[in-house]
Each structure stands twice: as structure tokens, then as C-alpha cells.
């Protein structure tokens, strides 16, 4: 028997919310009073803190899941439904990067990046959009990357998967728009998270010099745009990918 | 909700009312698509999700898609 949220908080799923950008997005929705579920393959101190904090423990759900496996993705979404009865917001954030010259890339590295970044996102989106269809409402945000638009040396597979997510955003927005489900994407620039691990200090300094905002991005910069795109009153902005990169690609 | 035929039929009726496709007579042999009820692919997906939410399983996840109202009732009766 599912326990319906007693207050007005939204039920939010953030995939890959145990660290980095995903953790920043989880924190943002917890701060706005929502009920937040997240999953990743391993637990982190941040997740343990949300589970233990009396201010968030009742509004936070953690699930260990490898979203590259359809059965894990389905089980995680079912656990959220069992606990809170619905999903109002899905932030598809889970992703992994492997860097290297593509002509030397291994099969395993290609599979790892494609399986999580594309297939994992498709699995979760399928499970959640079914529930949103039944309720005829919902907001989905796919976190892609500016490298899906511009490309980046050494990130061919990662760039390809992020461009795929932008295609998913446009297709799902067309498919689900008539049912009150809003689908948008965010293409972050370079952030101060471990996802920039493939870049050395010189590359990061070069990026900062070329960025009009004069700095790398913070998870909070992206979380604020997530909140804007998932505002319950926002139903007319859909099918768009918002570039949030401090002006780097402007 | 149970999987009793009356409950499943009620779910179908409520859904068809919502999409404004409830026929005068909802008979078991009535086709779900085309010249029958006329569900399109998105409406079929909605019905699939609602049936799963309300009755625990989804008749559209099997090897053969239900073709008639009776096929859905038979799935839950099995």
C-alpha cells in the first residue's frame, strides 16, 4: 500500500544523486520541501547524512541500483511508487564518463558509457513516464552536456551519449506533450565536480579563461535551472535543451 | 483494487470516459483499436499504465497484445 504524501511536496526522482551534480540537485529539492528519491550503485556520506538527518530522513529515499540493468531501474521506480504513490518530477542525471582517444577505446568502456548514459536513462524514463501518463502530469529533465553539442577531444563516446539525450528530450516532449507531461534538457558546461576528471589543470584554466562568467559551474547553477524547468506552473516550455555554461558556447 | 471482471471493466470504463471514447455498449468482443473503440498508440499506453497501477499487472506486457475488451478481462481472469 502506497503512502501518499501528506503535504504539498512533489515526489522527485534524481538518478545518480549520490555525489557531484546529482547530489547538488537532490539537496536543492530537499531544500524546497519536496520528497526526493535517488539511486546510484554505491552509497556515499552525503546520502547517509540525508538518511540520518531528522529534517530530511522522512522525505528522502535511497536505492542502490545499477540503472544500466532494466530490472534495477524498474525496481527502483516501483520502490518510489510503493512509498509515495506517484512521481511528479524525474531528473535524469545518472551518467558516467570515460576519456581516451576513440580509436583506442575498449569495448568495455563503450558499453559502460552507452549502457548507463543512454540505456539507463531510457529504462528509467520508460518506467516513470508510464506513471506520469496514468496521472497526465509530470516534468522530466534530462541532464546532457555541452560536449553533446560541441564535442570534445577524448570524449567521443560520452559526447555521443549526451547528444542522444538531447534527441530523447525532443522526442519525448512531442510524444507526451498532449498528456500534460513536460520534457526538457539541460546541457551543463564544465562543472567543479568529479565529472571533469578527464581534464587536466591547464585544460580547466583554459576553459575558465574562455568562459564569460569567469569560473567553472557549481552544481547549484544547474539545480536552479532544474527547479525552474520543473515548476508545477510551467507547462508551456517543453522540448528544449537549455545550455548552462557561463556563456562558454555563446 | 481487485482483478475481478467488474472492477477491471470499471477501470476500462473510467479510462474510456476520460478519453471520450466510451461506446454505448462495452461488450467483450469490441475491438480496442481502429473501427472498434479506436484507441491510438498513446491512449493504449495510458490504458496499459492505468491497468497496472489499479490491478497490479499489465495485460499489454505479454507476448500478444490484447485486441478486444474481452482479451483484457480474460488476462485478469486467468
TrEMBL record, chain A:
Record domain Ketoreductase: where: 10-189
Domain of life: Bacteria
Pfam family of the protein (one): adh_short
Biological-process GO terms, alphabetical: fatty acid elongation
Tagged with keyword ATP-binding: no
GO molecular function, one term: oxidoreductase activity, acting on the CH-OH group of donors, NAD or NADP as acceptor
InterPro entries for the chain: KR_dom, NAD(P)-bd_dom_sf, Sc_DH/Rdtase_CS, SDR_fam
Keywords: Oxidoreductase
The keyword Oxidoreductase is annotated on this UniProt entry: yes
Stated family: Belongs to the short-chain dehydrogenases/reductases (SDR) family.
Protein name (record): SDR family oxidoreductase
Automatic annotation (TrEMBL), chain B:
Keywords of the record: Phosphopantetheine, Phosphoprotein
Domain of life of the native organism: Bacteria
Domain Carrier: 10-58
Full protein name: Carrier domain-containing protein
Amino acid at each position: 500500500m502506497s503512502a501518499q504524501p501528506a503535504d504539498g511536496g512533489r515526489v522527485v526522482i534524481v538518478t545518480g544523486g549520490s555525489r557531484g551534480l546529482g547530489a547538488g540537485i537532490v539537496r536543492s529539492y530537499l531544500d524546497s520541501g519536496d520528497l526526493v528519491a535517488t539511486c546510484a550503485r554505491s552509497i556515499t556520506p552525503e546520502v547517509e547524512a540525508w538518511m540520518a538527518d531528522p529534517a530530511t530522513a522522512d522525505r528522502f529515499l535511497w536505492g542502490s541500483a545499477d540503472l544500466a540493468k532494466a530490472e534495477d531501474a524498474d525496481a527502483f521506480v516501483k520502490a518510489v511508487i510503493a512509498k509515495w504513490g506517484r512521481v511528479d518530477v524525474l531528473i535524469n542525471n545518472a551518467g558516467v564518463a570515460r576519456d581516451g582517444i576513440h580509436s583506442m577505446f575498449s569495448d568495455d568502456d563503450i558499453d559502460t558509457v552507452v549502457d548507463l548514459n543512454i540505456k539507463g536513462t531510457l529504462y528509467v524514463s520508460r518506467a516513470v513516464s508510464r506513471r506520469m501518463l496514468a496521472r497526465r502530469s509530470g516534468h522530466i529533465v534530462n541532464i546532457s552536456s555541452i560536449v553533446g553539442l560541441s564535442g570534445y577531444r577524448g570524449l567521443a563516446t560520452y559526447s555521443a551519449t549526451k547528444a542522444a539525450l538531447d534527441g530523447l528530450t525532443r522526442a519525448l516532449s512531442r510524444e507526451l506533450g498532449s498528456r500534460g507531461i513536460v520534457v526538457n534538457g539541460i546541457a551543463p558546461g564544465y562543472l567543479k565536480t568529479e565529472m571533469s576528471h578527464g581534464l587536466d589543470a591547464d585544460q580547466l584554466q583554459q576553459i575558465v579563461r574562455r568562459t564569460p562568467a569567469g569560473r567553472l559551474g557549481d552544481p547549484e547553477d544547474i539545480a536552479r535551472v532544474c527547479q525552474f524547468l520543473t515548476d508545477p506552473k510551467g507547462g508551456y516550455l517543453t522540448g528544449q535543451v537549455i545550455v548552462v555554461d557561463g556563456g562558454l558556447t555563446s | 483494487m481487485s482483478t475481478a471482471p467488474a472492477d477491471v471493466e470499471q477501470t476500462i470504463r473510467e479510462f474510456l470516459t476520460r478519453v471520450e471514447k466510451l461506446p454505448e455498449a462495452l461488450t467483450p468482443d469490441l475491438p480496442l483499436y481502429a473501427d472498434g473503440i479506436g484507441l491510438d498508440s498513446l491512449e493504449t499506453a495510458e490504458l496499459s499504465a492505468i491497468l497496472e497501477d489499479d490491478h497490479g499487472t499489465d495485460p499489454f506486457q505479454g507476448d500478444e497484445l490484447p485486441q478486444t475488451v474481452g482479451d483484457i478481462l480474460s488476462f485478469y481472469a486467468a
